[in-house]
Amino acid sequence: MPRILFVFLDGVGLGPPDPETNPLARLDLPAFERLAGGRPWTAAAPPLIRDDHLFLALDANLGVEGLPQSGTGQATLFTGVNCARVAGRHFGPYPHSRTKPVLARQNVFRRIAALERPHPQPSAFANAYPPRFFERAKKRNRWTVTTLCCLEAGVPIRTLDDLRRGRAVTADLTGADWRTLLGHDVPLLSEEAAGARLSDLGRSHAFTLFEYFLTDKAGHRQSPAEAERVLHALDRFFTGLLDSFDPEHDLLLVTSDHGNLEDLSVKTHTRHPVPLAAFGRGAQQFRHARSIADVTPALVEMAQD
Ligand SMILES: [Zn+2]
Prior knowledge:
By secondary structure, this protein is of the alpha/beta class. The chain has a single domain (about 5-305), classed as Alkaline Phosphatase, subunit A (3-Layer(aba) Sandwich). About 40% of the residues lie in helices and about 10% in strands. The chain contains 14 helices and 7 strands. Strands 2-3-7-6-1-5-4 form a 7-stranded mixed β-sheet. Bound molecules: zinc ion. Zinc ion binds next to helix 12.
């Protein structure tokens, strides 16, 4: 089976290609465009369906009214179960209590570990978390969807130590926030180097996940300057990742939980579809995906082959 590298972007939808409101339509983002077959990431991008490369729009509304939220959206994305239906509404950013049993039993890490022919090193979560995160999460017993998936599946949550050893990537990609905001003496990386590091980490596991949430934050702030900074940083990250990625053997997936950043005229999330880019070996397995609930089932099926 190909090794699967999954880059999850929070709050990135496919919106109208209006450069006034949609930074993905306005900015020059060559690596993003490469992932979409040479088009900007907007609703105007035609679906791309090739054996080794897909770019599709996925529904994130899940048949539920209101604006999609991260708690239920991510739980759906990482279990394949429509968790907005389970919760009875869109809910977030943290997991809804009614979805916790679903996350405990059916999260993607557990499903990969439970395969008939398990991989010796099934899953990794590549994000590093600072000591402060663990202190707060333990005190309140409040975990994000992805860290809860890790706890339920016995996948280690990477720490400051992992980061110093070059075995993790920070949420801001470069480590600059860890230095200035958290006061940790960690090495500063370029975004390209962070992308190369993630690609490298992906080589030692059947499935590797990385989560990036500054896209959602920039969307809520409605700041074109911040959106530009975040998207250019991500574009450099994807450049570094793609340059060291082997699409003949491995598969890169990029998707999101709901729209937000693609419409800076509103402060909230949107009901726009989200992109699914699948690049590399086995990409065609995802061609029938229609909503964010279809990603994990296709991924698990692929890992089984
Ligand atoms: Zn949000």
